[in-house]
Design a protein that fits this description.
This protein is of the alpha/beta class. The chain has 8 helices and 5 strands. It folds into 2 domains: about 70 residues, no CATH class; about 100 residues, Ribonuclease H-like superfamily/Ribonuclease H (Nucleotidyltransferase, domain 5). A hairpin with a 4-residue loop joins strand 2 and strand 3.
């Protein structure tokens, strides 16, 4: 077995009869508790808050010791991702009137659609997500993802919704006044397929 695993026989017997010290056993126990608090709090707790949490659990440990153990385990607090601005409403491009005017009532599908852009974390990193939602069913009927926030992002989402719903006419399509929704390409889709554009000042899904 020693030959297979590439260790010396003398080293194996030293390991076999090795007995960890009380300090080492204490550190192992503390390491498990540190990791538990760290994971439970989405890896956002550093030594100060982990120490405070452990002390509240009657674990007698100092911040310095917790900091050293975290360094040995190579774990550290992950900064919370700051909010990214998803739309630029400070522009001089043409806008639609607020036809929807916060009236979310519908009696059937394809009367009122709402749109918005947000961002999500994926295996490929942070991605922008544009969605189209039918207010009647609250179902996502169109969506598009991209690493960059271009006008094609919202256009692709709207085109998906049109394809899925077989190009209905006269639908109120409401969004904020972001530059992507005010682009010539987006406005052409609204006009070509007989939709009714509507816009509010702030992000719809965030404020309304």
């Amino acid at each position: 077995m020693c030959d297979v695993f590439g260790v010396s026989r003398s080293g194996y017997y030293v390991w076999l009869h090795y007995k960890p010290s009380k300090q080492e056993l204490s550190n192992r126990k503390l390491d498990l508790k540190i990791k538990a608090v760290y994971v439970e709090n989405r890896k956002r707790y550093g030594a100060p808050r982990i120490t405070k949490e452990l002390n509240a659990q009657n674990e007698n440990c100092s911040q310095g010791r917790v900091s050293r153990r975290m360094k040995i385990m190579d774990i550290k607090a992950v900064a919370k991702k700051k909010f990214k601005v998803t739309t630029d409403s400070e522009h001089k491009k043409p806008i639609f009137e607020n036809i929807l005017n916060r009236n979310f009532n519908t009696t059937t599908i394809n009367q009122k659609w709402v749109e918005d852009i947000t961002y999500i974390h994926t295996d490929e990193g942070w991605m922008y997500l544009a969605v189209v939602i039918d207010l009647y069913s609250r179902a996502v009927i169109g969506w598009s993802m991209n690493k960059r926030m271009k006008k094609t992002l919202v256009c692709d989402a709207l085109m998906m919704a049109l394809f899925k719903r077989k190009f209905p006419k006269g639908v109120i399509v409401h969004s904020d006044r972001g530059s992507q929704y005010c682009s010539k390409q987006y406005r052409k889709i609204i006009k070509t397929y007989g939709l009714i554009g509507s816009m509010s000042r702030k992000g719809l899904l965030q404020s309304e």
